[in-house]
Amino acid sequence: MQIFTKGPQRWAERRISGEEASRFRRARAEAGVGIAGAHVSYLINLATSDPELLAKSIRAFRAEMDRCDRLGLDFLVTHPGNATAGSREAGLRQNAELIAEALDERPGAVRVLIETTAGAGSALGCRFEEIAAMIDRVPAEHRARLGVCLDTAHVFAAGYDLRGDYEGVLETFDEVLGLATLGLIHCNDSLGTLGSRRDRHADIGAGELGAAPFRALMSDPRLREVPRVIETPKGADPIAADRRNLQTLRRLARA
Ligand SMILES: [Zn+2]
């Protein structure tokens, strides 16, 4: 399960009382949710060169980590950010150093997962090498608490052909980042075509990726231990839409 621990489009922080945290933990245990994590606010940009946005982003990122800790979450998905000024290298370096600092200051159990992006505009992280460069910047002692979230729609829009060459993309990921870093898969079909850099998600099997890559992914023994969530369109009835997409994935896992 993946949640937001606050409104993702707002800077206002959400305080979680001890009572609320225990209710969450209890409900999660009762529902049998084995792995649960959060996705950071969309406003956070740890790669920015704007000092005001940077200060807000650093504060907000630490607050995200604190809420994960409180709720006992397993992972926190974050983005490589946007290098709004300066070079991509400088943006990646700054983001990695700030993640390292946050891990250093917050010795909790949550694993920070850097998400692959479609590379729209100035978005960093659309090449596996960029994410590898970030991980390399984080001191070895913190790397066990750092990993990668692979979003199928994003990597496809970024130019990795999961549809035509599933095996090749997985091999490239393994060569550049190592499958051991893979902490989560976002299973989303893509409205954007291969290499379009367009970040628009579609229902599983109904986008440019189609069913085949999901069939491969759902039955891949190398990925058996890697949790996966959907971020597919919700439509008028979000629960029905999520159920439909999860059913499609389960069907493909058996096919
Ligand atoms: Zn995603």
Tally of helical runs = 8
Question: Which class in CATH terms?
Answer: Alpha Beta
Task: Give Rg in angstroms.
Answer: 18 Å
How much helical structure, as a percent, in the residues?
Answer: 40-55%
Bound molecules: zinc ion
Shape: globular
Termini, distance in Å? 24 Å
CATH topology: TIM Barrel
Q: Give the class from helix and strand content and strand pairing.
A: alpha/beta
Number of strands: 9
In terms of DSSP E residues, the strand content is 5-15%
Report what the structure shows:
The protein is of the alpha/beta class and 255 residues long. It has one domain: Divalent-metal-dependent TIM barrel enzymes (TIM Barrel). 41% of the residues lie in helices and 13% in strands. It contains eight helices and nine strands. The chain has a seven-stranded parallel β-sheet with strand order 1-2-3-4-5-6-9. The chain has a two-stranded antiparallel ribbon with strand order 7-8. Strand 3, helix 3 and strand 4 form a beta-alpha-beta unit. Helix 3 packs across helix 4 and helix 7 packs across helix 8. The mean pLDDT is 96. The structure holds zinc ion (ZN). The site of zinc ion has 4 residues, from loops.
Short description:
This protein has one domain (2-254): TIM Barrel (Alpha-Beta Barrel). It contains 8 helices and 9 strands. The protein has helices at residues 18-31, 51-71, 88-105, 128-137, 152-157, 166-176, 211-218, 238-254, and strands at residues 2-3, 37-39, 75-78, 111-115, 146-151, 182-187, 189-190, 201-202, 228-230.
